[in-house]
């Protein structure tokens, strides 16, 4: 099984880091301000973190604000913001109505420069963790997706994933050859400190592409602490930009020549046999 090189276009990309709270309105104001900052800095593709619109101590709060596919405040926000700035906007995750009662799909939505949706990805792998008093079980409120999603953008071909997906390399192999992998996240402080950078750099190295991970980063009003460290990693595994904590923008340049050089000098993708 082989992968062919992708004809990347290249360009400026940016990840937004947030410390979202339980109220949607203020979160959208922060997101709008940071996306505008990224766009003004020249970013052609901007990505928001997982749960950009809400992080609450009540895990069912996201169920209460879920939207039907194609209709709702959060989806309108993404469309209008992308159109206003003429950018490709990757909407972190939005809680959409699931087939199962009382649950949501944790969904990444992508809008093009005209505001129209170009891709939807429903998070496949649901986080579960238990250590002492720290416990998470996304399956209690989230219904998993089952489809691998890529799309073509102004900067090249992009593969979509969310947070816990990062631990499952088979997902990224199933994308085929891409120029950029996105990983909007809300990694916990515990797991992020141990594994975040290692996993992001590994995904970039083994897929020989750029990886950009916009994250939640800091202490939230609920008391939850997320790891942050939003970053951009190049195809050789080098970290091009990183923000440790607090809200802000991380930006960098996706260079097609860098992808081509790495794949030419170390043609691991062409050497695959399984």
UniProtKB/TrEMBL annotation:
InterPro entries: C-N_Hydrolase, C-N_Hydrolase_sf, Nit1/2_C-N_Hydrolase, UPF0012_CS. Pfam families: CN_hydrolase. This is Carbon-nitrogen hydrolase family protein. Residues 11-256 form the CN hydrolase domain. CDD domains: nit (cd07572). Keywords: Hydrolase. One of its GO terms (molecular function) is hydrolase activity, acting on carbon-nitrogen (but not peptide) bonds, in linear amides. Belongs to the carbon-nitrogen hydrolase superfamily. NIT1/NIT2 family.
């Amino acid at each position: 099984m082989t992968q062919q090189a992708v004809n990347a276009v290249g360009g400026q990309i940016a990840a937004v880091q947030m410390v979202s709270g339980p109220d949607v309105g203020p979160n959208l104001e922060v997101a709008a301000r940071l996306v505008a900052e990224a766009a003004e800095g020249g970013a052609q593709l901007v990505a928001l973190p997982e749960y950009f619109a809400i992080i609450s101590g009540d895990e069912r709060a996201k169920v209460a604000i879920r939207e039907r596919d194609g209709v709702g405040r959060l989806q309108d926000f993404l469309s209008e913001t992308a159109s206003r700035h003429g950018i490709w906007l990757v909407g972190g995750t939005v809680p959409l109505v699931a087939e199962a009662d009382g649950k949501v799909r944790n969904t990444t939505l992508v809008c093009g420069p005209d505001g129209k949706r170009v891709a939807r990805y429903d998070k496949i792998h649901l986080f579960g963790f238990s250590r002492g008093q720290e416990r998470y079980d996304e399956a209690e409120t989230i219904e998993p997706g089952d489809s691998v999603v890529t799309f073509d953008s102004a900067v090249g071909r992009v593969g979509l994933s969310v947070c816990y997906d990062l631990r499952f390399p088979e997902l990224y192999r199933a994308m085929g050859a891409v120029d950029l992998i996105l990983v909007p996240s809300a990694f916990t402080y515990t797991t992020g400190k141990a594994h975040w950078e290692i996993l992001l750099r590994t995904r970039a190295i083994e897929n020989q592409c750029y990886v950009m991970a916009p994250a939640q980063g800091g202490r939230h009003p609920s008391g939850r602490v997320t790891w942050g460290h939003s970053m951009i990693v190049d195809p050789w595994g080098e970290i091009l930009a990183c923000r440790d904590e607090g809200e802000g923008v991380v930006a960098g340049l996706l260079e097609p020549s860098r992808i081509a050089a790495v794949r030419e000098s170390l043609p691991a993708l062409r050497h695959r046999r399984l």
